């Protein structure tokens, strides 16, 4: 896999897809930021001040219940942005966005993004295509969590992250995975053991190393392919200029 300069804003697929005129307007206003593990980019019910375009970081979107319980509805990495409620007219959202894999990203002031979206040009079309892909991921996650086995869900969860990372290793605890999938930790432990015994992963001390990505793809349910196909159909390649 070729090395990617994650300090370059255009290592994010959406930013890379901006036409030259739009990029010239955006570039001076994009701020490169370090995103720490566990950092909350926006909380449930809060008004967003910025949108974030991850380059090497990964954020999870959680739906938060009234009793504080939550589950992951989608993952966002270098293919997209965090903060679609800004241009969808809601200003705030009942979900929460939290950094799960530390790394880099760029942020843009909320009003700046709204102004660009309201120009009704190529930026609007690009962001709406991204939103459709994200909605597909959210819908498929809901279906997957209802109808498929936990080890299939874990395979999907791992593959979606591998698509957004360089390398085949993730730093994550089983407790964190359980919280994101909305299941008990014991269930994640059993699912991870099955995948490890099948030679697909190695898990130790909060790290998961994927040993056989093709094997994960063969073992997962249809949901991963549905989501990946929709992202590939709607969004340009990450390295597009």
TrEMBL record:
UniProt keyword Transcription present: yes
Keyword vocabulary terms for this entry: DNA-binding, Transcription, Transcription regulation
Name of the featured protein: Crp/Fnr family transcriptional regulator
Tree of life domain: Bacteria
Keyword Transcription: yes
Domain spans labelled HTH crp-type: 148-214
GO cellular component: cytosol
Gene Ontology molecular functions: DNA binding; DNA-binding transcription factor activity
Xref: Pfam families: cNMP_binding, HTH_Crp_2
Lineage: Bacteria, Pseudomonadati, Pseudomonadota, Betaproteobacteria, Burkholderiales
